[in-house]
Amino acid sequence: MERILSEAKDLINSTMNIKYIGYILTNKHNKVLYTGQTDNIGRRMLEHQTKLYNGFTKRYYADKLVYYEEHNIESDAIAREKQIKGWIRQKKLDLINSFNPGWVDLTNIVFQKETD
């Protein structure tokens, strides 16, 4: 039953154009990596940047967005997050470098995309 409800939610959300974002954060020294996913990247980045919740990103100051990818279906975003979390560090670094070689903070770009 839970699987059916999840699939129905995914179908409704995909027809409504809701985007799910998988993302990787680091700190200002590019030393730590945090992988997550959300349906509201603007809100989620504010939570990370204001250290709203205790946890990894607050403890290690991981609030610099260096990688993201969009998904139309929530279960795809969750599966991809789990996949990336299972990778060795070097594979994550290669992914970031292929997408964002300068490791610039992409937060403003994502905010702008959300408001367009």
The CATH architecture assignment turns out to be 3-Layer(aba) Sandwich
Strand numbers in spatial order across the main sheet: 2-1-3
CATH class: Alpha Beta
- Average pLDDT value? 88
Order of helices and strands: HEEHHEHHH
User: Between the first and last Cα atoms, what is the distance in angstroms?
Assistant: 37 Å
Structure description:
This protein has a single domain (2-115), classed as GIY-YIG endonuclease (3-Layer(aba) Sandwich), CATH 3.40.1440. A hairpin with a 7-residue loop joins β1 (20-26) and β2 (34-38). The longest helix has 14 residues, at 2-15. It has six helices and three strands, in the order αββααβααα. The relative contact order is 0.20. Strands 2-1-3 form a three-stranded antiparallel β-sheet, with helices on both faces. It has 116 residues and is an alpha+beta fold. It has helices at 2-15, 41-49, 56-59, 74-85, 89-99, 107-115, and strands spanning 20-26, 34-38, 64-71. The termini are far apart. It is globular and about 40 Å long. 51% of the residues lie in helices and 17% in strands.
What are the SSEs and their pairings?
Elements: H1 2-15, E1 20-26, E2 34-38, H2 41-49, H3 56-59, E3 64-71, H4 74-85, H5 89-99, H6 107-115
Antiparallel strand pairs: 1-2, 1-3
Features:
3 strands; 6 helices; GIY-YIG endonuclease; alpha+beta; three-stranded antiparallel sheet; 116 residues
Please provide a brief summary of the model.
With 116 residues, the chain is of the alpha+beta class. Helices cover 51% and strands 17% of the residues.
